Amino acid sequence: MFDYPIFDMPLIGHRLLFAFDAIIHVFISHGAAVGGSIVLALAQYFAIKDNDHKFDELAYKILFTFFILATAVGALTGIGIWVHVNIINPAAIGALLRVFFWKWFVEWIVFNIEMVFLLWWFLTWQKYPLGTPGKRFHFKLGATYAISSWFTMAIITAILGFMMTPGNWLKSEFPARPDYLASLFNPSWFPSLGFRTFFSIGWAAAAAMVLTWFFTKEDEALREKAIRFFGKILWVSVPLFLLFGYWYYTQFPQAAKDLFAIGAVTRNLASNPILPWMLNLVLAAIALLGGILLYTNPKKAPLAVAIALMVGCMGLLAEFERVREFVRKPYIIYGYMYANGVRVMDVPVLNRDGFLKRATFVPDELKTVTASNKVVAGRALYEMQCRYCHTINGVNAIKDRVKNWDEKAIYSRIGSLNSSATPFMPPFTGTDAERGALAAYLASLNGPAAHAVQH
Ligand code: HEC
User: Could you tell me the CATH number of the domain that includes residue 399?
Assistant: First the structure.
């Protein structure tokens, strides 16, 4: 355990750093890749069926935009996620890799197939004009791209679902002979996959409506036809993702459901029970209103309507990811590993023997807390247990959280981090002396020694 050097992200902290990258990635992977491939393959299918050259050309233009987004921003942020998870929580990604190694391996192969078919489909679109026999073959390239990009999502969703509901994996002969099938077929896999599938399709259809608005300024008939076409896909997907969303929700552990309000807004705002609902209803209303106005009046709808549809969908998607990440706290893998990389099963041993003793990168002179190394040892404990969610001075600043508390009050609070007031925090792990050291360090942040310790 704790076999990794410390990575520190000042001011914005780990959570925000990861959120920036991951949420941009979700916009692109769900919209431009998974949903986009399905929606545009459907568009091409109907363009071939109706022999509609203009619609075929429009679908190509939209694919051009999705292609740039998927290959540039999507791939880059996807790699960014790997970099971030490895430096932010190596213990967690290590655990997931051990459980999901072969599934991830398959996913990686399928992802490469996906990329090949995306390139093939996109780059040969003009080579197979409508009406030529090769066009049907060309459509099959798009369909293969769509199926493979959905398949990559299916596997990633299994891993995300596992983090929330490891379920029977924990009950199997664990950890000696864990049940790998139970990890894959965890209770929230199918519902979350259905939810993400139809959200992706709806989001891609919405994005295609907006792009149509831009690409068809000179052709009102085409605009009307295309916006209605993509709009119908959007309307079909909404009830389906709501239905799967509800099924998904029922799979969450009760403690996670209890955190929904805080996850949706912030701890302070959540004390007003209306606000979390309001925020999501307003986002949904913005998206729906934009969608309805664009659909009912495609020829005259102003730019603001298209933007409302985009912004509403993006807000809902970002909000979903934030809530999903937050309500899993205090765990990163539910019931198995806390958000700070401490495995639940290791807690008794660490409490007995000491946390610092087991930390490979902690210098030997800090492994035992003494009167003279107390504050520095406390800092090491902060870095290994608290820095995942707190910064010193920035977002969720620990310095502000303990302002005006003396060392004794902090010591006492450290003993109840996982209390009902703050159930999202993991408990402190370590000996009583280590708890005292952490308290001394945190007290020093606002005390006279603050400057000396931080630098
Ligand atoms: C999983 C994320 C997470 C971890 C890990 C974590 N905290 Fe927190 N902590 C939070 C959040 C979220 C808040 C609430 C912030 C707010 O009120 O907006 C918080 C609040 C606090 C508060 C203020 C509590 C109050 O009653 O207002 C203290 C003190 C605190 N944390 C100390 C710690 C210490 C010490 C550690 C490490 C041993 C730690 N936290 C680890 C997420 C975390």
Answer: 1.10.760
**Distance from the CA of 183 to the center of ligand 1, in angstroms?**
30
Distance of alpha carbon 170 from its chain centroid, rounded?
23
pLDDT, one tens digit per residue, over 94-120 is: 999 999 999 999 999 999 999 999 999
Give the distance between the most distant pair of CA atoms in the chain: 84
Neighbours of 37 (CB within 10 A): 29
Domain match, 382 and 365 both: yes
C-alpha to C-alpha distance for 286 and 194, rounded to whole angstroms: 24
Residue with the smallest CA separation from ligand 1 atom 24 is 401
Measured in whole angstroms, how far is the alpha carbon of residue 361 from the centre of its chain?
29
Write the residue with the smallest CA distance to atom 20 of ligand 1: 401
* Ligand 1 pocket, residue 418 CB under 6 Å: no
Report the residue among 410, 425, 428, 429 best suited for mutation to probe ligand 1: largest number of ligand atoms under 8 A from its CB.
Answer: 425
Counting residues of the chain whose pLDDT is more than 90, the rounded percentage is 93
Ligand 1 centre and the CA of 13: distance in Å?
13
Same domain? 302 vs 252: yes
How many Cα neighbours within 13 Å face the side chain of 162? 25
Cβ–ligand 1 distance for 138 under 6 Å, the answer no
- What is the number of structural domains in the chain? 2
Q: Is the pLDDT of residue 451 over 60?
A: no
pLDDT tens across 116-143, in order? 999 999 999 999 999 998 999 999 999 9
